[in-house]
Design a protein that fits this description.
The protein is mainly α. The chain has helices spanning 2-40, 57-62, 66-100, 104-118, 121-131, 138-145, 157-185, 189-197, 202-213, 215-230, 234-239, 251-261, 265-290, and strands at residues 43-44, 52-53.
Length: 294
């Protein structure tokens, strides 16, 4: 009996020894910073001086701060526009490749569409900024060739955020395409054969077989899309830096500006906690929406 206990203890210690490095990294770089952010969100802290407890003042102030409120609106608009677009596009293109182009051409398309995914967001933002340039941009050059006046794409409030959304969708579609394609390949062909025998059309097979079978994949794609959208920073920073005015400023960009430019770490921490709670709330609503019917 003692031998069994000693062996079990030894196995447990070996297991903990393997887990410990990863746990320490998670503790030091994730859990402790989260706890510190929660604490600093209730303080006035500028890094150079000791933190001063202010209670809920930061939270009360941020909901009346025009910059923060504008950033919230921009973040929600960005999320509502990019997540459905990249989800639908990746699903449609993935289904098209899975059904008709399971050949060299299809593999080339997947590879080409995955290139933006592995490219740096700063690089992507810089390239698209050049394309959207008012005077020497390729897009305005094409429009000028057909007689359309130049548009200041990134310099006017009505188009700047839309341009950022277009670039984000272009960059993310390839990633979700690969996920959808893998899910589509796991749908049993016998379902489609049975439906075809029953006279189901292509659209009926898609809506009544494909979509229900890949519902977990759609949940994953939407979840990742929402989280990435709420956390968008580098693409906005490299293309517009939040301008013109605050037309493209997002919550994460505002956190950066408040914390690392204005050195209001307590206030920035409060905004970060609100963003964290927003993501949790949206994820909860999403889980209720995707919950399987009894």
């Amino acid at each position: 009996m003692n031998r069994v206990r000693k062996k079990r203890l030894k196995d447990n210690l070996v297991g903990w020894a393997f887990v410990l490095p990863s746990f320490l990294i998670l503790l030091v770089f994730t859990l402790i910073p989260i706890v510190m952010s929660v604490y600093y969100s209730f303080t006035e802290y500028n890094v150079l001086e000791p933190a001063k407890w202010v209670g809920l003042s930061n939270y009360i102030r941020l909901f009346s701060d025009r910059v923060v409120v504008s950033s919230m609106k921009n973040t929600f608009f960005y999320t509502l526009l990019t997540v459905p677009l990249q989800t639908i596009l990746s699903l449609v293109i993935g289904a098209l490749i899975a059904e008709r182009f399971q050949n060299t051409f299809g593999r080339a398309c997947k590879g080409a569409m995955f290139v933006p995914v592995i490219s740096s967001s700063v690089l992507v933002g810089t390239i698209w900024t050049m394309l959207f340039a008012t005077d020497n941009g390729i897009i305005n050059g094409i429009l000028g060739a057909v007689g359309i006046d130049k548009i200041n794409w990134l310099g006017q409030r009505s188009t700047a955020l839309l341009c950022v959304c277009v670039v984000a969708v272009w960059k993310n579609v390839g990633y979700f395409l690969v996920i959808y394609f893998a899910g589509l390949m796991n749908v049993p062909q016998s379902y489609y054969e049975a439906a075809e025998v029953d006279g189901a059309t292509r659209l009926q097979r898609f809506f009544h077989i494909t979509l229900p079978c890949i519902k977990p994949i759609t949940y994953l794609v939407v979840t990742l899309g929402i989280i990435w959208s709420f956390q968008v920073f580098d693409l906005v920073y490299s293309m517009t830096s939040g301008g013109p005015g605050n037309a493209t400023s997002t919550l994460v960009l505002t956190i950066y500006q408040k914390g690392f430019r204005e050195y209001r770490m307590g206030y920035a921490s409060a905004i970060a906690i609100v963003l964290f709670l927003f993501i949790l709330l949206v994820n909860r609503i999403q889980r209720m929406f995707f919950r399987e019917k009894e």
